[in-house]
Amino acid sequence: MRLMGKKALAVSILLAAVSSNAVWAEDTALQQRVERLERIIQGQGLVSLLARVDQLQNEIQSLKGENESLTHQLGKLKASQREMYIDLENRMTAQAVAVQVPTTVETIEPKVIQTPVVESSTDTETAAEPESVAVPVAVENGEAAYQAALQTLRSGQYEQAASALYAFPEQYPQSSYLPNAYYWQGEANYVLRNFEKAIAAFQTVIDRFPGSSKVADATLKQGFSQYELGQVEIAKATLTNVMQQYPNTSAARLAKVRLERIKQQSN
Fold first, then answer.
1. Which residues pair with 114 in a beta bridge?
2. Greater confidence, 134 or 175?
3. Tens digits of per-residue pLDDT, 193-206?
4. pLDDT of residue 44
5. Residue 218: in which H helix or E strand, if any?
C-alpha cells in the first residue's frame, strides 16, 4: 500500500510538471507574438500604413471636391455658351430680317381715260382736243400695310411688327401676301422667344400655303423653335424632314448644321 501511494504521488508530481511546462510554453509563445507586434509598431510600419491610408482618403476627398467644382463650372460654361448661342442666333435672325425685307413698294400707275371727241354742231367750230384724266386704282391686296409691317420688323420693333402682322390677315383675308405675313409673324415671335406662337405661325404657312416658297424656311424655324422649347426629339425629326423634303437648299444646310450641333451638345 505504501508503495502504491508513492507511485501515485510521483505520477501527480510528473503531471504537474508537464502541465506547468505546457503553460509556460503557451505563455512564451504569446509573449513572443506580443513582442513581434511591438517591434512592428515601434518600427513605424503600422503607423506609416495608417498614415498613408489617411493621406489617400484625404486625397480622394480632395479629388471629389475638385470633380464637383469642375462639374459645376462645366454646367455654368454650357449654360453660358447656350445663352451666347441664342443671342447670336437672335442677332443673325434680326440681320436676316433686315436683308430679306424689301425696302421699296411697287407703285401702281394710274389708268388714263380718254374722253370722247365732242364734234361741233357747226362747221365753223373746231373739235375739242381729248383730255387725259388720272384715276387712281384702289389697292385691295394690302401691299402698303404689309410693307409697313416689314419695315417695323426691320427696324427692330418686333412686338409692334408682330401686332401689325397679326392684324394683316383680318384686314386683307384675300391678300397674296398672306403666306409671307404668317411667316414673318413666326420670325418676330421667334426673336421675342415666344416659341409656341412662332410654331403656330409657321404651321399656318405649312398647312394653308403648301406651294409657298416660305414653306421650307417655315419648317426649318419650326424645328428651331421646338428645340428651344426642349422638344429635342421632335425638333430632330422636323429638321431631318427639312433635309429630306428640301435638299440642296439653304434651309436644308442650316438644318444639317443644327442637327450636328444637337448631337454635340447631347454627348
1. 132
2. 175
3. 999 999 999 999 99
4. 58
5. helix 215-228
Length, in residues, of the chain: 267
DSSP letter assigned to residue 175 = -
Alpha-carbon distances, residue 182 vs 33, 98, 196 (angstroms): 93, 17, 14
Strand partners of residue 135: 111
Q: Walk me through the domains of the chain, giving residue ranges and CATH numbers.
A: 73-98+142-266 (1.25.40.10)
| This prediction's pTM | 0.53
**Structure-block grid coordinates of residue 207:** 398647312
Element spanning 113, H or E: strand 111-114
* Helix, strand, coil distribution of the chain in percent, nearest 5: 75, 5, 25
Q: Are the C-beta atoms of residues 204 and 223 closer than 8 Å to each other?
A: no
Report the alpha-carbon distance of residue 143 to residue 163 in Å, rounded: 16
